[in-house]
Amino acid sequence: MKYTLLLALIGLINIAKAQTNSFPPNNSAGIGTQNPQFYYHGGDNLGMEIFNVKTSSNSQAHLVLSTGATANIGSVGTLSWMTPNSTGNKGVAYIGAWTRTDATTNASGDLVFATANASTPTVKMRIAAAGNVAIGNEDPRALLDVTTPLTNTTTSVLGRLPEGNSVDGGTYLGVQTYNSSPVSGISFALEHKFYGSLNSAINFHRGGNINGGFISFSTSTGIERMRIDALGNVGIGTTVTSDCKLAVEGTIGARKIRVTQAAWADFVFDKNYQLPSLQEIKNYIAANKHLPDVPSATEVAKDGQDLGEMNRILLQKVEELTLHLINEHDRNEKMQAQIDALQREMKSVKKADNK
Prior knowledge:
Blueprint: H1 2-16, E1 29-31, E2 46-51, E3 60-65, E4 75-82, E5 91-99, E6 109-115, E7 122-127, E8 133-135, E9 144-146, E10 154-160, E11 172-177, E12 186-194, E13 197-205, E14 214-219, E15 223-228, E16 234-236, E17 246-248, H2 278-288, H3 297-303, H4 307-354
Parallel strand pairs: 1-2, 8-9, 16-17
Antiparallel strand pairs: 2-3, 3-4, 4-5, 5-6, 6-7, 7-8, 10-11, 11-12, 12-13, 13-14, 14-15, 15-16
């Protein structure tokens, strides 16, 4: 930048030879003018105005040197660009240096970049003394702090694609702000827009207070498909997780599901276990229309079922049934032994009768 300014000054010295100039000992200098002006800078500044009478807009550049700037956010100097023929605002842009804290001991300062939008130029970007960079605001609170705090605004675009980029807002991935007033409403979103239309997004919702926020995920035309609520519960196809760590509205397809269970049904094989008789089970079914310990159809319709607990109950019934089968097998063997003994006895009797 120093090299560019040096070349510009050398060129301006050559221009100055053919124009009216002003170099007073205790005032601002003018090249191409004897009445240098600084418009919105004002104050006790001393500087140099470069005036080009050959352009239709009389475009100018100013080099402003501020005197005695030692207070916090005091202007050390600016490089400004003007269009003095403008009937309203004449400033186009400027680059300025500001002091930070107190410059009487150790120099510390910021570099600011200002542009005009049909009004006096305002700072749009700032490199703070600590190295933090602000774009769209003057107070960077991070290494890169982008945008002025605004609601319902696309504050930054992280990437664009050529297809659909000329339609509305274009095709891009960007950060969107929303109105954070509604409780549980979206505060920020990372949005994918295609031909300017919302496609998919990761949405950051505020909670009922300072804390309590949650995240949702949208696809298609921005329709919410999944959320992680403030308690860490996950809802897929539903916004209501109740007390479930995972709530799914729809079908789950899986090759394998592992459910851990603290208690299992092997207590049925304990020698002290009172195995209900088949008659007791028959009486219970007649009265309740379902097996003992098994939830009824009404209970399942109302509360659903615990897969782990249901497997334990079903295993318990299988084990009880197995014990009944074993007992029945033992009885059958005893009966068969008795039958075999009777048959042998009858054969003996028959042989004795035939003699």
